[in-house]
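If your schedule permits, I should be very grateful for your opinion on a structural question. What I wish to show you is a protein chain and, alongside it, a tokenised description of its three-dimensional fold. Would you kindly read the sequence against the tokens and tell me how you understand this chain to fold? Here, with my thanks, is the record as I have it:

===
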Amino acid sequence: MDYVTGAALVIRADVLNQIGLFDELYNPAYMEEVDLCLRVRRAGYRIVVNPDACLIHYEGTATTEHVQRLHWFNRGRLLFLIKTRPLSQLLTEFATAERAYFKTTRDFTNMRAIKRAYLDAILRLDAWCAAREVYQGQPVLQDDREQLMDLLVSLRNDCIRADCEKIDQRFQ
């Protein structure tokens, strides 16, 4: 498996001592277990599933606010990508996919959450670049940081623009 849900995750203490705990930048939720599992795999361990295991996970206990959960999910998604993906992939494939989603979605609630997540990413970019440095084992150059900032600002603006166009279309 690439990853398992954090609600049902069991991991040996010696592995945690080697790779570290959940990255607190994901707090309070979403994508922290994906990040942890990626670090487990990078350290040479496997992610396995026990098909006999059974549990009940009460989702949504951190908040009942749907937009807040979408915001946390999208913020975690952006952090994971910025932390783990090559800059060239973020600037091309990721940016293209995001813009395509903005143009085609009719999910105004998710668009609202995404705009907020992009703002968080812009405001937290220094901390996220520090996490990227640790993950990638090399410093984030000033030029790379500026390209990431430009990408985030551009995508947030494109999201706002696409959202406004859809709102205009609803009232025509």
Remarks:
- The mean pLDDT is 93.
- Residues 1-62 form one domain.
- The two ends are 48 Å apart (CA to CA).
- The CA atoms of residues 16 and 154 lie 37 Å apart.
